[in-house]
Design a protein that fits this description.
The protein is an all-alpha fold. About 70% of the residues lie in helices and about 0% in strands. The protein is built from seven helices and no strands.
Length: about 180
């Protein structure tokens, strides 16, 4: 019972955790977006003036898929770091950071709270940075896997801010039924 696990056993345990963590993180992210009617095709969002740097809709799906896979893999590494004193704190930080992430789409796309969503991205970045730093102390690779997420959050914050700036009255314009009160410019 006091034997150390072999490399193969540790690797196998990681992949078992990853086979659960990655799909769970990915499905939660997809559900948040779907339930919020996020992206192009949302009548309110389609009416907004977009910044020139706004990527096409498919790019968001591709980017978030890759980011959620990286988040899930990093989380699996931490779940697999049994015995590490920071593991519990790292798991709690990850769950909090993910909860903030999942709240963004409903806040922006469903509730049309563009400014509040920008503040939320700031909170997401800080929680993501704290998670990255603690993950890196436990498993350096897990920390590095979160760096693209932090970079994307910076880009998303810039887009969110540009949308806020370009649409100063854009928050309550389109009721859920798809009609809009936005006049021609």
């Amino acid at each position: 019972m006091g034997e150390l696990a072999s490399r193969e056993q540790v690797r196998g345990a990681f992949w078992r955790k990853a086979l659960v963590a990655v799909p769970v993180v990915l499905l939660l992210g997809m559900a948040s977006g779907r339930l919020s009617n996020s992206g192009y095709g949302n009548p309110w969002f389609d009416q907004l003036v977009k910044p020139e740097a706004m990527p096409p809709g498919w790019a968001f799906g591709a980017a978030w898929t890759a980011l959620y896979v990286l988040l899930g893999l990093a989380f699996a590494m931490i779940l697999n770091a049994r015995g590490n004193q920071l593991r519990g704190k790292a798991i709690a930080l990850f769950v909090a950071a993910l909860a903030l992430n999942l709240a963004w789409s409903p806040l922006f796309f469903r509730l049309h709270q563009v400014t509040a969503a920008l503040w939320l991205i700031g909170a997401m970045f800080l929680a993501g940075l704290a998670t990255t730093l603690i993950f890196a102390r436990i498993r350096p690779l897990a920390g590095w896997l979160l760096v693209p997420y932090l970079a994307w959050l910076c880009f998303a914050a810039a887009l969110n801010n540009d949308i806020r700036r370009l649409n100063p009255k854009g928050q309550p314009l389109a009721p859920e039924g798809g009609a809009t009160q936005m006049g021609a410019r």
